[in-house]
From TrEMBL:
InterPro entries: AAA_16, P-loop_NTPase, Sig_transdc_resp-reg_C-effctor, TPR-like_helical_dom_sf, Tscrpt_reg_LuxR_C, WH-like_DNA-bd_sf. Residues 881-946 form the HTH luxR-type domain. Keywords: ATP-binding, Nucleotide-binding. It comes from the Bacteria. The keyword Glycoprotein does not apply. This is AAA family ATPase. PANTHER family: TESTICULAR SOLUBLE ADENYLYL CYCLASE (PTHR16305), TRANSCRIPTIONAL ACTIVATOR DOMAIN (PTHR16305:SF35). Residues 1-23 are annotated as: Disordered.
Length: 959
């Protein structure tokens, strides 16, 4: 195929002298989009072009010409495609484009918990290396065709990779046939990418003018109406039209005179033309093409030779004939049909029974070779009948093989195998267990639970414990810890259960009790396990220690809680459920550090948990590190960073199928919105939060989400509703201690709320609890500051409020205490220097709120000052701008400088203890604030800032 020149693309479309294919007439807009993307990539900007349309409309040709043009302009290119017979193979289109990733994923670990070890995280990480290597040397174009046949892992990877490389000189062109293959999943991908800024092009049939130009190009003459009518036969789609015209021309079907073309005779439909073309081939060549069609749109030559029982050299005459007829192309070791329409036309010549028999032979051939069973699976599913033992064994192998690398595919294979299994087949339960595991990993929890219960109904007693453990795990992930507890206790009530299942069941019991915050039941159970450790598995001992750590926090004994968590981590080194235990314990450890404002230690624990989650393949916790970091950023008053972390976590949760954790992300966004003064946005986040699956505090039993709902209700002016939401906390001593420790700002806020609604006993209970925590934990001074703030509000004590306004480690809390001090002094005019001290306190509060972007709180303080006759001009405060360099947060500037120095997203993430997803989120925000679209532009801006600032430290002017 020829190339379209740089000048042609720049002009907006290929002319007949530059394009090798007349069918691209009338595509000026599409060429301009391609040209724009390639120009942007040469300027170090990335982009995504989504191409869709019916068969034959020119999608593949568009990708081909774009790739040739990109090569001519100095791009590196990677070209891949999906195939109906490779859609069971994880990442097949991307691997065909990029080659094997540089690092093999870790071997799967059998923990007995469905979905506990999942290689998807590792596979996604491995794909970054070849892309990073390519973009490091200049602009890159990646084209992926026929994505309607893509496997689920490829679609997941594209969601992640397009985000992570959005700021690199990498252009993606992704094409699919409308209505073909897995429509829902590909629709979802295109919708997500379009929402991220991708351009979407729907190629349609050629208009009348374009048809005339195409026919003129092919025939070298102006077409008469009878010639133009051929467009109706092919639905005016370019490939079949050009193909049809070329074929008829070669057969002498046109009469050309005086520069005009007419039909010689009536033409049969295009399908008939294709059939006649096949009939003109020799019988051996037709047979070769039919067998080739069974093997796929593209296929290795050696597979075709083996299926035909011929030496490769014996196939040369038939291959030459098929190539000369324009049906196949031979490139390297692969054969490929020139177009889907030709492939489908050849496939249609096979009687169904013959097609099934050939698929069976192909599947058995691939299985005989050993190695992966996945390539055989697509053939087996097309040939197997109910009860076909050999085919079912092949599908079983394939499902187990991809279970950890592509659980969506594993679920499909296992489900298909179940459909083909007789009810009395002893293999039914094993297939059901595989399907339950795969469905759980992909987040299809109701379906997994239903199948698990069906399996339990027919399982012998020996297999029941394992299925119940799986069901208990599903219930935990579904936000139904009470049901999980019941299933796990059912397992433990049975006699002679295997040790590994007993440990899993005991661990699940403790996990459920922590999620339920049911310490009355959990405390004695944990003490019993720890008193007789030799009779219990390490998994049970770790679970008991984690529950004991929770009890210590609820009792207000922070140091003891740390001790129990560290002991749990020492034990959770090699047990059966290590893959869940270690990162889970690390995250709880980070929570403790955050509660006492040890933020660096909290970040370290989160980073270690993230590394363990990725190494061990615990996809169920993949979103949690970013969520925990978001809470740490909130505690330090860095709202922009908290928002970025929450958004990154929600994207990961959506990608990994753990939608239940989107709840926590939405609650964080709602809290940030309240602090910024956008109550409408906060209300929308809470509305979405309530529609999400799961329950509040899923997995970690946190009081945070209820606390945020109360904050939003208060911001809406509904104080009664806020008190109603928090009433369980006001009236329960354990819940109060837990809330005041895990959300330290809640002590003053709940005291203030109770007083505002005339409920002094509630306020007194909060102050009593805060005092208790201070006395019990003298080693953690932040608790003394928290207690002083609450006491100052309850008793109207300016000394306590002044102490909190000076000593609290968090900017927002200091500002809040200063505001409360100013408000108190306004009401005590007889106090020495009351007015002057009140204004000082309110000014301190205003300054603190503005520094962290708490605009709603700042507005309230301004109103207090105006009521005193004091006005503070908005510009006089150090309020961050909305755009430009000065609008960047501290973290965004750090990310900008690392990226400007040439680091990849993953390298920057490792330096900053972030996830690559979070770095990508920060980069998108940075680019929007600076109104740029490339790393090169970012590097230029950073260099200018560094040159302007004396010593590289002083702030430069805003951009």
């Amino acid at each position: 195929m020829g190339e379209v020149s740089h000048d042609v693309l720049t002009a907006g479309g290929p002319g007949s002298d530059a394009s090798s294919w007349p069918g691209w007439r009338g595509r000026g807009r599409e060429w301009e989009l391609i040209a724009r993307l390639l120009r942007a990539a040469r300027a170090s900007r990335g982009g995504v072009l989504l191409v869709e349309g019916p068969p034959g409309v020119g999608k593949s040709r568009m990708l081909d010409v774009a790739a040739c043009t990109a090569l001519r302009r100095g791009f590196r290119t990677a070209r891949g495609f999906a195939d109906v017979l490779t859609q069971m193979m994880p990442l097949a289109p991307l691997l065909s484009a990029l080659g094997e990733p540089g690092r093999s994923p870790p071997p799967g670990m059998d923990t007995g918990l469905p979905g506990a070890t999942d290689q998807r995280l590792s596979l996604l990480a491995d794909l970054h290396e070849p892309l990073e290597t390519m973009v490091a040397h200049g602009p890159v174009l990646v084209t992926l065709d026929d994505l309607h046949w893509a496997d689920p892992m490829t679609l997941l990877a594209l969601r992640s990779l397009t985000r992570d490389f959005s700021s690199s000189p990498l252009v993606w062109m992704l094409a699919r046939t409308s209505g073909g293959g897995d429509v829902a999943r590909v629709d979802r991908l295109f919708q997500v990418l379009e929402g991220d800024g991708a351009t979407r092009v729907a190629l349609t049939a050629l208009d009348e003018r374009a048809v005339t130009e195409v026919v003129t190009d092919v025939l070298g003459a102006v077409p008469e109406p009878d010639v133009l009518a051929l467009a109706e036969i092919t639905d005016a789609t370019p490939f079949p039209l050009v193909d049809l015209l070329t074929k008829i021309k070669s057969e002498g079907g046109f009469r050309i005179a005086d520069g005009r073309a007419r039909m010689v005779s009536t033409l049969p439909p295009a399908q008939e033309v294709t059939r006649r073309r096949l009939e003109e081939l020799s019988a051996p060549t037709r047979r070769l093409l039919q067998v080739a069609a069974v093997l796929g749109r593209s296929l290795p030559v050696k597979d075709l030779a083996e299926m035909l029982g011929e030496a490769t050299g014996e196939l040369l005459p038939m291959l030459e004939e098929a190539t000369a007829a324009g049906i196949i192309d031979c490139t390297g070791r692969e054969l490929a049909f020139r177009h889907d329409l030709l492939w489908e036309a050849v496939t249609a010549t096979l009687p169904p029974a013959v097609g099934r028999a050939l698929h069976q032979e192909a599947g058995e051939m691939l299985l005989r070779r050993g190695g992966s069973a996945v390539p055989a699976a697509a053939h087996l599913m097309r040939s197997a009948g109910r009860g076909d033992a050999r085919a079912l064994l092949g599908l079983d192998r394939a499902a187990r093989e991809v279970l950890r690398s592509s659980p969506h595919t594993a679920a499909y294979l296992a489900r298909r195998a179940l459909d083909l299994t007789e009810p009395t087949d002893p293999g039914w339960l094993g297939r059901a267990a595989t399907a339950v595991d795969a469905l759980t990993t992909t987040g299809r929890l109701p379906e997994a639970a239903g199948l698990a219960r069906s399996a339990l109904a027919r399982a012998p007693s020996a297999q029941e414990p394992r299925l119940r453990c799986a069901l208990a795990y599903i219930m935990l992930l579904s936000g139904r810890p009470a049901d999980a507890l019941a299933e796990a206790e059912n397992v433990l009530a049975q006699e002679d259960i295997p040790d590994d299942l007993g440990g899993i069941a005991e661990w699940t019991v403790f996990w459920a009790l922590i999620s339920l915050n049911d310490l009355r039941k959990g405390r004695p159970r944990a003490e019993a396990v720890l008193a007789d450790r030799d009779r219990h598995s390490d998994a049970a001992v770790v679970g008991a220690l984690l529950l004991r750590a929770r009890c210590a926090m609820v009792d207000g004994r922070v140091a003891d809680s740390f001790e129990h968590l560290h002991e749990a981590l020492r034990i959770a080194g090699g047990g059966a459920v290590e893959a869940i235990q270690r990162p889970y314990a690390r995250l709880l450890l980070s929570l403790n550090h955050r509660c006492v404002y040890q933020f660096e230690a909290a970040d370290m624990a989160i980073q270690t948990a993230q590394e363990e989650i990725e190494t061990l393949g615990v996809s169920v916790l993949a979103a949690q590190p970013a969520l925990f970091r978001a809470r740490v950023r909130l505690a330090t008053g860095r709202f922009d960073d908290a928002e970025a972390e929450a958004q990154a976590a929600m994207a990961i949760a959506d990608d990994m199928g753990t939608q239940g954790f989107i709840r926590l992300g939405l609650s964080i966004l709602a809290y940030v919105a309240v602090r910024r003064g956008d109550v409408d946005a906060a209300t929308q986040h809470i509305r979405r939060y309530r529609c999400q699956p799961g329950t509040a505090g899923m997995l970690f039993g946190s009081a945070w989400e209820g606390w945020v709902e109360a904050v939003v209700a208060e911001a809406q002016g509904d104080l009664g509703r806020a008190v109603e939401i928090l009433e369980p906390t006001y009236t329960d001593a354990e819940g109060q201690r837990w809330t005041l420790l895990t959300a330290p700002l809640s002590a003053a806020c709940m005291t203030r709320l109770a007083l505002a609604t005339g409920n002094r006993p509630y306020a007194q209970s909060i102050v009593d609890t805060a005092d208790h925590l201070e006395r019990t934990n003298p080693s953690y001074p932040v608790l003394a500051t928290v207690a002083a703030h609450a006491r100052g509000l309850l008793h109207g004590d300016p000394a306590d409020l002044a102490f909190a306004a000076v000593n609290h480690p968090q900017t927002w809390a200091r500002a809040s205490a200063a505001e409360d001090l100013g408000a108190l002094l306004i009401t005590t005019p007889d106090a020495p220097r009351a007015r002057e001290r009140a204004i000082e306190g309110l000014d301190q509060a205003l300054d603190g709120y503005l520094r962290i972007g708490a605009l709603r709180d700042a507005a309230r303080v301004r109103a207090r000052l105006r009521a005193m006759g004091v006005r503070r001009r908005h510009w006089a405060q150090p309020q961050r701008q909305a755009f430009g360099w000065d609008s960047l947060s501290e973290t965004e500037r750090a990310v900008a400088e690392l990226i400007a120095r040439g680091l990849t997203n993953r390298q920057a993430a490792a330096r900053m203890f972030l996830s690559p997803h979070t770095v990508s989120t920060h980069l998108r925000r940075i680019f929007a604030k600076l109104d740029i679209a490339s790393r090169a532009e970012l590097a230029r801006i950073c260099a200018e800032k560094k040159q302007w600032r004396p010593g590289g430290d002083a702030e430069g002017p805003g951009t």
